[in-house]
Amino acid sequence: MGVFGKLFSAKEGSPEEKLRRIITYIPENYKTHRQYPSAIEYLDNREFALAAESLVDLADESGHYFSQSFWKELSEVFNLFKLFTLETYCHKKIEETTTAVNYQIPFGWVTEKIGSNVYSEHIAEIIKEEWGDERYKKDGIDRILKQDGIYFKRSGTSGTLYIVKGDKLLEVYSELEMKKYALYFSSLKNWSYPVNRRISVEEKSTIKMEIKEWSEIKNIPFSFDDDEEK
After folding, report:
1. b/e map 152-167, b = 16+ CB within 10 Å
2. CA 120 – CA 113 distance, rounded (Å)
């Protein structure tokens, strides 16, 4: 089945699911590191804490900046096993990473410092495959993911609204109708990045409010199809 296939069979929120997600989104050039196959072996043997420790060693030995979300996911695994020293270490790495690069590194990315204020990004192949879509290339999704916020990319009389929150991306399709962009919001079920995870009712309600506030500031009129249904 492979690591990626098992990702979707593991219980959501479980140590196994978190670890398979992390491993799936490791950029390719780090998969030759000795700790990578060790992490997979420990994971397949259900030795989850050891798999998590291998991933910590992988990141540390590379000397590069793994995403804050990478460390957050690992901290949650260590917390579940009451390995509080390692959990604290992961939180420390989040602070160090943010201070060093001064931005939120998207999940599945690793930043390498190659000179004074010069950085190179290593991106997981699975993400690049998702970006094979011409729309993603045209809309500059790689730049959008670096900063939380709302972004609207027009294409003729239609457009896509991108909402970035931490390591998650939401896409809402829209079409121009009667001088307003109609958002197809009611059918929205999942986050689109890094994996199709269910969006909660609370998240959806909050995002809707944020879109309304943002549209007023930007003076871009939107209408919501679920408002029209009521």
Report:
1. bbeeeeebbbbbbeeb
2. 6
| pTM for the whole structure | 0.61
d(CA 29, CA 178): 50
Q: Are 145 and 67 in contact (CB under 8 A)?
A: no
Longest Cα–Cα distance of the chain, Å, equals: 59
Supply 45's token pair. Answer: 């043997």
Yes or no: say if 100 and 78 are a contact pair by the CB < 8 Å rule.
Answer: no
- Residue 68 and residue 96 in contact, taking contact as beta carbons nearer than 8 Å: no
CB atoms near residue 142 (< 10 Å): 16
pLDDT, mean of each 10-residue run, the chain (230 residues): 46 86 93 95 97 98 95 96 97 96 89 83 81 76 88 85 88 83 81 77 92 93 70
Q: How far apart are CA 150 and CA 129, in angstroms?
A: 23
Beta strands in 35-190 (DSSP E): 65-66, 109-115, 118-123, 149-155, 158-165, 168-177, 180-183
Query: What pLDDT score was predicted for residue 196?
Result: 61
Q: Is 14 left (phi over 0), alpha (psi -120 to 50) or beta?
A: beta
65: three-class secondary structure by DSSP = strand
Report in angstroms the alpha-carbon separations of 44 from 20, 26, 50. 10, 17, 11
Question: In this structure, what token pair is assigned to residue 88?
Answer: 């604290």
Q: How many CA atoms lie within 13 A of 126 on its CB side?
A: 16
Domain boundaries, the chain: 2-125, 133-229
